[in-house]
Design goal:
This protein is α+β, with helices and mostly antiparallel strands and 131 residues long. The chain has a single domain (2-130), classed as STM4215-like, CATH 3.30.2000. It contains three helices and eight strands, in the order H-H-E-E-E-E-H-E-E-E-E. Strands 1, 2, 3, 4, 5, 6, 7 and 8 form an eight-stranded mixed sheet that branches. Strand 5 and strand 6 form a beta hairpin. The protein is elongated, with a radius of gyration of 15 Å.
Length: 131
């Protein structure tokens, strides 16, 4: 799964709208303690499903959650970041050992307020076929 997660990371950092808003505060699994906001944390939710197909090709499917965290004043910016994520995944990605990686939005989050910050989690189904 590492090549798939690497492809996601590459795509996130290549999306100028996200890096303009978040800088380099895009993290796999967890952010460092006391990191400044805004930031994005993403990671797999559950385990990968592998389906063997004809011709010896395997189809991998994982669920990836993207959680945006914004300071108190970030209520509209959090939606802009979510839209940038959707735009980032509008085309397929490349990953070592796979012919393509596709991310499909499964559910959009709703902002919630806690501990003087806003957070919102978008869920994507990521599908890859090995070569």
């Amino acid at each position: 799964m590492k090549p798939i997660l690497d492809a996601i990371k590459t795509r996130l950092y290549a999306t100028s709208t996200l890096t303009a808003a978040l800088g380099s505060r895009i993290y796999l699994d967890q952010a460092p303690p006391n990191e400044s906001l805004p930031l994005l944390v993403y990671g797999m939710n559950g385990t990968a499903t592998v389906t063997r197909m004809m011709g010896g090709v395997s189809r991998y499917e994982i669920t990836v959650e993207f959680t945006f965290q914004y300071a108190n004043a970030g209520t509209t910016a959090i939606h802009t970041a979510s839209e940038a994520l959707e735009t980032a995944f509008a085309t397929s990605m490349t990953a070592t050992g796979f012919d393509r990686v596709t991310a499909i939005k499964a559910s959009g989050g709703v902002p919630s307020f806690s501990d003087d910050a806003w957070s919102m989690t978008d869920t994507y189904r990521v599908i890859a076929h090995d070569t």
